[in-house]
Amino acid sequence: MIDFSYAKMRQIIVHFVGNKAQEQGYEIADNIIEELDEEMTAVLNEIFLSPFKSETTNHFSHSTSLDYNEAYNYIRKIFNEETSFFEGSVDLLKQLYEASSHPNVKSGDLWLIYLNECIIEGELTDAIGIFKVENKEVFLKNEFNQQSVTIGYEKGITKKDIDKACIVFNLQEEDGYRVVALDNLTRGESVYWKQHFLGIEKVLDDTLLAESFVNICAEFVKKDDESLVGKSTFIKEAQEYLEVQPEINLEDFADTLVEESKQEEFKTVVANYEKTHAVTFPDNFKVNEKNKEAFSKKVKNKIKINNNISIVVKDVNQLTEKDMVEGFDEVEKRKYLKIYY
Predict the structure, then answer these.
(1) Rg (the chain; Cα; Å)
(2) Dist. CA 177–CA 170, nearest whole Å
C-alpha cells in the first residue's frame, strides 16, 4: 500500500530538457525551492501525487548488473548523501537528455521533488519524484480595473498533464529500490521513459502475479466461444477454486477448471500475457481477498457477445439455462439470444 497522507515536499527543482536528435539541449535551473506554504503544498500534492493509484511496484534493473543502471546510481547517491539533491538532479537531467534521442520525443520541464514521510509496504521512508511535463493547459483569466475589464491567458499544469512520472522510495536499495510509475503511456513512450531513461521493471511479487492471473482469466472468458451459461459455469467454479486454494498453480487451475479441448487455448492466453507484460509465473503464488474481489468485478459481471453488445450479469452465480437460451437462426444465418425475466 502507498500512502502520501503525511508526505512533505522538502526540495523541488525544475529543469528543462529538449530533444537530443533535434539538438535542443537542456537548461539547468540555478535554484531549489524549499519553503512552501500550506496552500501551495496542497496544490502540488494534488497535481503530482494523486495520480499514483496502482500498487504495482517496480525496481531499477540491468541485464548485466544493477551497478550499470545510471539512474539507479544517481538516486542512490542522493539518498546516501554522496551528492547533493541539486547535483543528482543535474545528473538525471543529462541522463534523460541522452535517452531523448528519438525524433518523436517532446521537450518539456523536468520536475524533481524530494519527499519525506511517505509510506510504502507499511514503512515510513523518503522518496524522490521524477516528473516530465510536456504539455500544459491554457487557462483564461480576466481582471477588473474600475469599470474596465481585460482578458488574457496563461499556461499551467494540472494532474492530467502528468504522464511520464515515477516515485522512487528509499527502500530495498540492494534490490533496486521500490519504484511506482504511471502506466498511461503508449508503447513507444513507455520504452523511452521506463527502459531507456529509468531502466525499471515490475517487481515479481504476489500482488503482480495475482493481478496478472485475474487479467488472464478475463481474457480467456472474453475469447472463449462457449455459451453464456458455459462461461458463467467456468467463472463460478473459478471463484470456488479461489476460495479453497491457499495458493494458485496455473497448471492445476487449468487441469481442474478448463475443458481438455480448451486447455491449449488457455495456455496460449497465458503465454501471450507473459510475453506482452514481461511476467513469468512461478509454480505457486497467493491470491488475497482483494484480488478475489477484483476477479469478481472484472471477470464475472460483463460478458461480451460481440464487438457491439455486452451483457452485464449482476450475479453470475445465479445464472441458469432457464434464464437465457442461445441458438442459431437458419434463416438469418446468425446466432440469437433469448433472455427470460
Answers:
(1) 25
(2) 6
Which neighbouring-strand residues pair with 165? 131
Position 83, amino acid: T
Amino acid at position 156, single letter? G
Q: What is the pLDDT of residues 203-230, one digit of tens each?
A: 888 878 888 888 888 888 777 656 666 6
Please, what are the averages of pLDDT over each run of 10 residues along the chain (341 residues)?
91 96 95 91 93 86 93 97 95 96 92 95 94 91 86 89 93 95 81 92 84 84 67 77 85 89 90 85 83 66 67 66 78 82 77
Report which residue type is found at 255. D
Which helix (DSSP H) or strand (DSSP E) does residue 321 occupy?
none
pTM, 2 dp: 0.73
- CA dist 44 and 80 (Å) reads 26
Q: CB under 8 Å to 331, separation ≥6 — which residues?
A: none
CA distances from 168 to 74, 191, 218, 264, 299 (A): 12, 18, 31, 40, 32
DSSP secondary structure code for residue 125 in this structure: E
Amino acid in the structure at residue 14: V
Please tell me the distance from the alpha carbon of residue 10 to that of residue 83, in angstroms, as a whole number: 16
User: How many angstroms separate the Cα of 270 from the Cα of each of 5, 147, 247?
Assistant: 37, 69, 18
Strands (E), 68-170: 108-120, 123-133, 137-145, 148-156, 164-169
Residue closest to 107 by CA, chosen among 116, 117, 96, 115 = 96
Note whether 213 and 188 are within 8 A (CB): no
- The conformation of residue 107, written as its DSSP 8-state character, comes to P
pLDDT at 11: 96
